[in-house]
Amino acid sequence: MIVTGPFTSGRQAPGLPRLPTPPSGWPIGSYSTYEEAQRAVDYLADSEFRVADVTIVGVDLMLVERVIGKLSWGRVLGTGALSGAWFGLFVGLLLGLFSSTQGMSYAPVLVGLVAGVVFGAAFAAMSYGSTRGRRDFSSASQLVAGRYDVLCQPRNAEKGRDLLAKLAMGSHG
User: What are the φ/ψ torsions at residue 67 (nearest 5 degrees)?
Assistant: First the structure.
């Protein structure tokens, strides 16, 4: 389990299992989007409910790949050169800062920038060329669920279910 957020990495929470384990608890709510489930847990927290007993579980997981656009040699080389330029600029700045000359030297920055552009474009070209046209598009992948269940440990499940029923009926008091 993660301390920081739903899909981010962070430090291990104390008392949580280190190995993947199935969730436990009784269902107290079910939602069609993660945002709705998150809002429900936030409502429980605002109602002074013990949210340490609560788990959000994504059910019926799907990997959704959204196509962003068509790839071309120009786009591949341009993107590779740009990402290489950023890395080369970073390395060049570091070398410039720690060079033995008086003050900041711009030669290492320029060399790092040019080398970054060249190597970035070359690596992008090799990567794209190795696909031999089998993947001429760019995309972004996302893991989503068909529904999101909110589970609660049995000792507080009834109270949690009552609070979420109030939220569903619109009476937040």
Answer: -75, 130
